[in-house]
Hints:
The structure is a single chain. This protein folds into two domains: 1-79; 154-270, Response regulator (Rossmann fold, 3-Layer(aba) Sandwich), CATH 3.40.50.2300. It has twelve helices and six strands. The chain has helices spanning 4-11, 19-27, 34-37, 46-58, 70-77, 81-104, 112-136, 162-174, 185-191, 212-220, 239-248, 260-270; strands spanning 138-140, 154-158, 178-182, 200-204, 229-234, 252-255. Strands 1-6-5-4-2-3 form a six-stranded mixed sheet, sandwiched between helices. Helix 6 (81-104) crosses helix 7 (112-136) and helix 6 (81-104) packs across helix 11 (239-248). The protein is globular, with a radius of gyration of 19 Å.
Amino acid sequence: MRTIAGDASHADPAVTMSPSFRRMLRLLDGTRSLADLAPLFPHLDAADLRMWISELLRQKMIKRAPTLTRSQRLRLQENAPSKEIQVQKIAEQIRPWLAAKDIEASGPRPRPAQLARTARLAAIEASTAAVSMGREGFFVSPEPRVARAPASGVVLIVEDDEIQAKIVAKMLEKDGHRVRIAHNGEQALAALREKPAAQLMLLDVELPDMDGFAVLEQLRATRGLKGMRVVMLTGQADRASIAKGVVLGADGYITKPFRPQMLREAVQRLLPGA
């Protein structure tokens, strides 16, 4: 069940936490068991579900129900050592990036302990996403970043390779989507101002003038565009890069090179019925 700190974190949109973690924290109100949560988070296997809950326990956002047996308490603490080492490594890799990003931002700086918590939550979700990417070639978050996104059916492709961009555009147009193309970050930011607003952005991480993370950060800071779905197209499938996307609000990742069907399925999951 949630603690006072967990209630505060769940209710505060300023706390950097993915929609999936926020939803899990909301559901852990003392009325649900681990078995109840499993079908609500189908993208998590049993080991990942335990790891997510263990992290919320570790950060004192939830506490164990007094009715748990000793064996149940021990099972919650049984994270695979290899996964914990992996999470620690990712968190250590992105903490300097988080600290530098917060130095550039206005307002009060988070304490080192807050940076460490943010880094671990992002690292755990990145670890889960990387498994899906290895299995399916892509990952799409089951939780939308906001409740509503612009329902325009427009897909913005941000890809510096003109041939690759045209191939993706032709495929999406064949599926009935309207498409816009930008070949660098500056063009992408200009395209964001076009009406109707795009519903989904397929964003290459490596662009000639700025990286895709900078584009994503500006998008999430722009009023009226925060609901746009964003999938990162990347050859950087390392977990630290995925964790950066988690922190900045990416909805998914597709590993390059990718098969057309992978892209099609990812788009369909994010724009059902569009």
